[in-house]
Amino acid sequence: MAKQPSRRRARADDDDAPPAPPRRLKRPSREAAEAAVRTLIQWAGDDPDRAGLVGTPDRVVRSYEEFFRGYDSDPVELLKRTFDEINGYDEMVVLKDIRFESHCEHHIAAIIGKAHIAYLPDKRVVGISKLARLVEVYAKRLQIQEKMTAQIATTLRDVLQPKGVAVVIEAAHQCMTTRGVHKPGVSMVTSSMLGAFRDDPTTRREFLAMIGTPGRHGLENV
Ligand SMILES: [Zn+2]
């Protein structure tokens, strides 16, 4: 039987699989990246040497450094500093309305949305700013929303080892609103429920009540 590596790779994105560590790929030079932007400008039908566009390759490459800086951070390292002394606190920790900007890996178009994260601590808690940073590390990569949702949830599960993790992401995809089917106002909602949030409907309901009904957060204002 022939091997099917592509199918094995696809399974790595499953809800229950730990996120694969980022592959360390060699980056091209900045000059090569700028030349690629020049090519795209020409492909769009314009002249990269005209005054308004001369600085554009440099600006686009610098924008990419910001859009994709998540590749430079290790999300597991980020969460490692946890607090073991939780003084018996065993209620849900919820951080909601974490605004993020990402880019879809199919069109490199913006994905703009909000993430809501909850976990039920067992022995450890983590500073809430770390939860927001975790969203940022995964958002600042080429993404699909389903994968990003699962990556955030499984990383939290693996590092904090809580009783449960819930992640809901709602986002608008500019590849749907500005091109293709042109459907403004549409948002996509994805969720990953692990442990108690998957097994216990009461816990899940409590979380969903705390974040409100996804899709009613006014994504037009994000
Ligand atoms: Zn897309």
> Would you identify the regions where 5 or more consecutive residues have pLDDT less than 50?
1-15, 217-222
- Percent of residues in helical segments? 25-40%
Largest sheet: 5 strands, mixed
In CATH terms, what is the architecture of the largest domain? 2-Layer Sandwich
Rg (CA only): 20 Å
**Order of strands across the main sheet:** 3-1-2-4-5
Number of strands: 5
Beta-strand share of residues? 15-25%
- Global mean pLDDT: 87
Tally of DSSP helical segments: 9
CATH C-level of the largest domain: Alpha Beta
Bound molecules: zinc ion
Shape, per Cα inertia axes: elongated
Structural class of the secondary elements? alpha+beta
Instruction: Name the helix and strand elements from N-terminus to C-terminus, one letter apiece.
Output: HHHHEEHEHEHEHH
The CATH homologous superfamily of the largest domain is named: GTP cyclohydrolase I, C-terminal domain/NADPH-dependent 7-cyano-7-deazaguanine reductase, N-terminal domain
Domains counted in the coordinates: how many? 2
Quote the distance from N terminus to C terminus: 50 Å
> Which fold name is given in CATH as the topology of the largest domain?
GTP Cyclohydrolase I, domain 2
